[in-house]
Design goal:
The structure holds 2 protein chains of 2 kinds. Chain A is an alpha+beta fold. Chain A contains 11 helices and 14 strands. Chain B folds into 2 domains: about 5-75, Beta-grasp domain (Ubiquitin-like (UB roll), Roll), CATH 3.10.20; about 80-155, DNA polymerase, domain 1, CATH 1.10.150. Chain B has helices spanning about 25-30, 80-95, 105-115, 120-130, 140-155; strands spanning about 5-10, 10-15, 50, 55-60, 70-75. Chain B has a 5-stranded mixed beta sheet, with helices on one face. Classes of the chains: A alpha+beta, B alpha+beta. The interface of A and B includes residues 34 and 105 of A.
Chain lengths: ~280, ~160
């Protein structure tokens, strides 16, 4: 199918992009890599009357290392991250997540900022970056603000980003030398959206523990009780994980609960097993 | 209507087009470059894969207007590319196509795998090609053909 008609603006600057969004009203969409918006528009599941293309904005590019974290420009593609654009242990974690997103031809265009803004419940970055405790930098008409990812993710395809805001960058805390990352997702075939997803960050050195379930049908969620156990170095039994997941997943079917339990359990085992 | 200036297979192109014109339809309908095939039109099947600024992308979900200033290569533009010549011969030898609908996208992606992953084994090739659907061959011939080209280049 072909998309419904729309008008196209290529933003020449971040300021212009924000101004166009502020003028455009609710049915103006931001175009970055277009790997989710493009299919949705072809299927006419999305019919924006106006597109603001931010894909060439230099202000949204680049990756820089700062005190304690790495700043990833919103237009960084999954393929660039897969190929090691971020260095060090965190870079290897991010590369592993990126390599599992869709297919290379999609990763060449799709961006980390676009994935977060789209907030597909089954997507990789929202869950992985929730486990990694990322912060999202936004630019709107009122200026800049930064939002912790836990507050940024609101629901299925919903975020704290206002319609006239643009994601500028993502800050991800650097990983300590003892940090471990577990990541397990189940798909019907490689590159498809996840049917179950577990993401775990565990640093015995700093007793940091974050346990996340993704592909929930809504936003990715942390499991605080599992995190408390993990911080003490405890490996929870599958039955205990299932008991924690059931309320988070909201009356899941036996199949969904079993699949999600296995994903989170295996991600936990990955960080608790000596390499 | 946006004016689009881009290069297609080395040739400078200037087109005025509706914003909703995709790169795939620009290639096929305006420039009559029909090697680029449209299958699913939602970025899943890979038949429409072309090179934009040297890397494979889905042309069915890329708006032509967003390609302004970029360099596009379709299969037609790779006729004399040495890797593509080797891949075409290998696809023939290994019976890597039957109806041929997926083949242009398969070849564009296969060339990327050969150049980007010179150490790829058949399992890695299978994973890398998982974004290109073929409904005829069962993929075996495609994997074998790409692996044969990789092995030949290793010498």
């Amino acid at each position: 199918m072909k998309p419904a008609p729309f008008t196209y603006h290529r933003a020449a600057s971040l300021e212009q992009a924000v101004a166009l969004l502020a003028q455009g009203g609710g049915d103006t969409a931001v175009l970055s890599g277009g790997q989710s918006l493009g299919p949705m528009m072809n299927l006419r599941a999305a019919r924006p009357s106006q597109l603001v293309d931010i894909g060439r904005l230099e202000a949204l590019r680049g990756i820089s290392v700062a005190e304690g974290h790495v700043r990833i420009g919103a237009l960084s593609t999954h393929a660039a991250i897969e190929d090691g654009a971020v260095s060090g242990p965190l870079g290897r974690v991010l590369a592993r997540v990126a390599a599992g997103i869709a297919y290379r031809a999609v990763r060449n265009a799709g961006t980390i900022g676009g994935s977060l803004a789209h907030a597909d419940p089954a997507a990789d970055w929202p869950a992985a970056l929730l486990a990694l405790d990322a912060r999202i930098h936004l630019r709107g008409p009122g200026g800049d603000r930064a939002v912790a990812i836990d507050a940024f993710l609101a629901g299925a395809f919903e975020t704290a980003k206002a319609a006239d805001e643009v994601i500028v960058a993502v800050d991800v805390p650097a990983l300590g030398p003892t940090a471990r990352f577990g990541y397990v997702k189940f798909c019907r075939k490689p590159g498809e959206f996840a049917e179950a997803l577990g993401a775990v960050l565990y640093d015995p050195g700093s007793a940091q523990a974050r346990v996340v379930v993704g592909a929930t049908g809504s936003r990715a969620r942390r499991l605080p009780a599992a995190e408390a156990g993990l911080a003490a170095g405890l490996s929870p039994a599958a039955a205990d994980i299932a008991a924690l997941l059931a309320p988070v997943l909201g009356n899941p079917s036996a199949l969904v609960l079993k699949r999600q339990t296995a994903a989170v359990h295996r991600a936990l085992q990955e960080v608790l097993t000596d390499a | 209507m946006p004016d689009i200036r881009l290069s297609v297979n080395g040739e400078a192109i200037e087109e005025s087009a509706e914003a909703r014109l995709t790169l795939a339809d620009l290639l096929r309908e305006r420039l009559h470059l029909t090697a680029t095939h449209l299958g699913c039109e939602q970025g899943v099947c890979g038949a429409c894969t072309v090179l934009v600024d040297g890397v494979p992308v889905r042309s069915c979900i890329r708006f032509a207007a967003a390609c302004d200033g970029q360099a596009v290569q379709s299969l037609e533009g790779l006729e004399h590319d040495p890797v593509m010549e080797a891949l075409r011969a290998a696809f023939t030898r290994h019976h890597a196509l039957q109806c041929g609908y997926c083949t242009p996208g398969m070849l564009i992606m296969a060339r990327d795998v050969v150049l980007r992953l010179p150490d790829a084994d058949p399992a890695r090739i299978r994973l890398e090609m998982s974004g290109n659907l073929c409904r005829c061959t069962g993929y075996l011939g495609i994997i074998e053909a790409i692996h044969a080209v990789i092995l030949a280049r290793r010498g």
